[in-house]
Design brief:
Elements: E1 11-14, H1 19-30, E2 35-39, E3 54-57, H2 63-70, E4 75-78, H3 86-89, H4 93-97, H5 100-112, E5 117-123, H6 154-172, E6 175-181, E7 184-185, H7 198-212, E8 216-220, E9 226-228, E10 230-231, H8 232-244, E11 250-253, E12 258-260, H9 261-272, E13 277-281, H10 296-302, H11 310-332
Parallel strand pairs: 1-2, 1-4, 2-3, 4-5, 5-6, 6-11, 7-10, 8-13
Antiparallel strand pairs: 9-12
The protein binds nicotinamide-adenine-dinucleotide.
Length: 333
């Protein structure tokens, strides 16, 4: 990848107090860019606070605050959204829908202030339920998002926002980039706030079982649903490559290493060096039966695809979460 020349105008990372945004801001700083970070959370609650960046606590769903964030920047990375794992998005559909205000006001501000490129973080949740009803998941190619029937709430908002980006490109000439992330995991993200996804939740449960000597953890569902999980370094690499490419349509950014939830749990246990029994909660939300990423287009457009094995990504994620579990238990004691 040949990065753009480092210019005097900063780049903006929206949602930088969150998981992927915090990693992306670190990457952009390491590349030598001037970075402005914005997130609705107070700075003390950001997963990563980079002293080398300009860090702003702003509600980007408000037009004036979005305009203040975008003022004077060269590129916008929009990773700000009200979201979480299946437990969160299945019970906060309206809240997830309201993220449309963030993208709307950021696009308007980008159009008005002459932003060069605009990145939008979409999701594999845009793909229709009817293509994901088997655990032998058919890899999802970008064109399969239509005819549309995405995940209620969160998925519809992502699909609509993708289209709004495309229409701003068509009508106003804004250069847009749209990635569909597939289950991103890694350190410095939600692990116990109700928004955590399966890899982080399982790391937390295993770490607690290790500390307490308990021999069992709970799995949501029967453990047979299948997913692919993308390590955050791969996600950030893909975002940067996509931003530097000329590709303006939606692009999968996801691992194609398909595993069952039970295999994911087994890998977390192996990472922790324990063997545990699983108790299945069959009433918990579990999402579609199977989902995998078709990476033909990302290979052809970027000459690259996510490649960090799940075992290697968990080896970097589990210690961070186990450390958080330990600190939380010691603070509560
Ligand atoms: P995250 O929740 O850790 O980060 C999102 C951040 O957006 C949070 O820090 C939140 O405070 C911020 N935010 C929410 N509302 C805001 C507002 N009104 N103004 C400013 N900031 C606001 O989530 P993440 O996992 O880092 O996800 C980043 C992006 O990637 C999101 O758009 C998400 O939908 C998308 N995505 C993530 C995954 C994944 O597996 N993590 C998968 C698909 C898509």
């Amino acid at each position: 990848m040949t990065p753009s020349p480092v210019g005097p105008r900063p780049v903006l990372v929206c949602g930088a107090g969150g998981f992927i945004g915090g990693h992306l801001a670190a990457r952009l700083l390491a590349e030598g860019h001037r970075v402005r970070c914005a997130d609705v959370k107070p700075l003390r609650s950001w997963f990563q606070l980079h002293p080398g960046a300009e860090n702003l606590s702003l509600d980007l769903s408000h037009r004036e605050q979005a305009a203040a964030a975008v003022a004077g920047v060269r590129d916008v990375y929009n990773l700000a959204a009200d979201m979480g794992g299946i437990g969160y998005i299945s019970t906060h559909r309206a809240d997830c829908m309201l993220s449309v205000l963030i993208n709307t006001h950021l696009l308007l501000a980008a159009r008005e202030s002459g932003v060069r490129r605009y990145f939008y973080a979409s999701s594999a949740c845009v793909y229709p339920d009817y293509r994901q009803d088997r655990t032998e998941a058919q890899p999802l190619a970008e064109a399969m998002a239509y005819p549309a029937m995405p995940e209620d709430g969160y998925g519809w908002e992502k699909l609509f926002s993708e289209r709004m980006c495309a229409d701003f490109a068509a009508d106003y000439g804004l250069a847009v980039r749209v990635a569909r992330f597939h289950n991103v995991y890694g350190p410095h993200g939600s692990w116990d706030d109700g928004r955590e996804k399966a890899p982080a939740a399982l790391c937390r449960k295993v770490a607690r079982a290790v500390r307490s000597g308990g021999g069992e953890i709970e799995l949501w569902g029967d453990g047979r649903r299948t997913r692919s999980f993308t390590y955050v370094d791969d996600c950030v690499e893909g975002v940067r490559r996509l931003m530097e490419s000329g590709h303006d349509g939606p692009l999968n950014l996801g691992s194609s290493e398909l595993v069952t939830v039970r295999e994911l749990a087994d890998l977390v246990c192996a990472t922790a060096g324990v063997r545990l029994r699983y108790r299945h909660d069959l009433t918990a939300p579990t999402g579609v039966a199977g989902r995998n990423s078709d990476n033909a287009l990302v290979r052809s457009v970027l000459g690259w695809e996510p490649s960090v094995p799940l075992s290697a990504g968990l080896a970097a994620t589990y210690p961070w979460i186990a450390d958080r579990v330990g600190r939380a238990e010691e603070a509560a004691a």
